[in-house]
Amino acid sequence: MSRLLSVIIKPTLTCSMDCRHCYHPPTERAQGGRISFDRLDRLFSMISREYDAAWFIWHGGEPLILPLSFYKKVIELEEKHFGVASHRVGNTIQTNGLALNRKFLVFCRDKQINVGVSHEGPCDGLLRPDGAKVDKILRDMNRDERVFSVSATICRGSQSRQREIYEYFRDAGMTVSFSPVIAAGEAAVHPELVPDPEAYAAESNALFDEWLHDRDAQVPLLPHYLYLLSALGDPQPADCAHTSCLTKWLCVYPNGDLYPCAKACPAPYKLGNLDDFRHLGDVFRTPGFVKLLEGTVARREQCRTCPIFDYCAGGCSVDACYEGGIEKNGGNACRIYRTVFTHVKETVDGILRDRPDLQQYNSFVQDAVLGKLVNPLYGNGN
């Protein structure tokens, strides 16, 4: 058995928004339909037999196009194969937020389902419509202590406003993560949406410095906090783009098609269809996966002399596909990560070396650094 498999399930490609950077063009989103329960039952059965644990990320399209009854049935199927209240399985639903309501969030709380909302707060309208509606829903839900996190996608028009976005959600008590638009899907025909890597990274570093010294911060800043933990010697599997995700992640489309990633993975890397496999492990022996692996290995060979290679494992192969080719490094994603992670690591190294008063930093930084100082083997597998 392998330890953990993360599975992104797209139960439908239909969506209630028309985001300018969507991974799926309108023709795909218009296909309708949803994944069948028979297919989910088969998927859960294979995973429960072959893996110690699984984390399911419900994506789309818009997953909440489907009713609450759909997710109640999903949980029934998971409990059938993994057990009731089992530590072998977890779930996250990534939504645009339009369909969130108290009844659904109570269900998520009771079943320990994480909820992520794609929203840019003060930068409403640059990428997606209906931002004001989503904002009102989030604030109403947050007022009732419904726990969720926010994912903010940064485009060229918002790259200089990252601190403003962070402060907006920080003041509302919401955890926020940042990621840049990549030139995939709809963004491939709207290159003006893709951030300038140097400008994005400079603002991202300034944001990290602000959060670092924000002693009143009650929420982590992502992905910077993951980078900080990684710099301390504790690589974070949640940062899939920089932890060698191959064979550890899988994406399932409504019709059962399988891909190694949810980010508009190019057709040559399709892994087949779920209905054609008796053992899920065989997915990672298909021609599509071999092609992906060969390209990834070739790129990583070029990356090995980079001083942060041990922290990024050559970066995301799908990002590389859209930024010059899977065998090439040095694209926008690479440049952004190298600049931001290096800044975070140099900051962490300076703290460990100079031993300043940790009270000047927020509690997340204090706890992480103290863990390293108290136990120098922290994060080294000991």
Would you mind describing this structure in some detail?
- By secondary structure, the chain is an alpha/beta fold.
- The protein has 13 helices and ten strands.
- Strands 7-6-5-4-3-2-1-8-9-10 form a ten-stranded mixed beta sheet.
- Strand 4 (113-118), helix 5 (131-143) and strand 5 form a beta-alpha-beta unit.
- Helix 2 (37-50) packs parallel to helix 3, helix 7 packs parallel to helix 12 (332-354) and helix 8 packs across helix 12 (332-354).
- The two termini are 23 Å apart.
- The model has no long low-confidence stretch (mean pLDDT 92).
* End-to-end gap: 23 Å
User: Helix/strand-derived class?
Assistant: alpha/beta
Rounded mean pLDDT is: 92
Number of helices: 13
- Note poorly predicted spans: none
Number of strands: 10
The succession of helices and strands, N to C, reads: EHHEHEHEHEHEHEHEEEHHHHH
C-alpha Rg, in Å? 21 Å
Note the topology:
Blueprint: E1 2-9, H1 26-29, H2 37-50, E2 51-58, H3 68-82, E3 89-95, H4 102-110, E4 113-118, H5 131-143, E5 149-154, H6 162-171, E6 175-180, H7 197-212, E7 221-222, H8 224-231, E8 249-252, E9 257-259, E10 272-273, H9 287-303, H10 309-312, H11 317-322, H12 332-354, H13 363-374
Parallel strand pairs: 1-2, 1-8, 2-3, 3-4, 4-5, 5-6, 6-7
Antiparallel strand pairs: 8-9, 9-10
Helix pairs in contact: 2-3, 7-12, 8-12
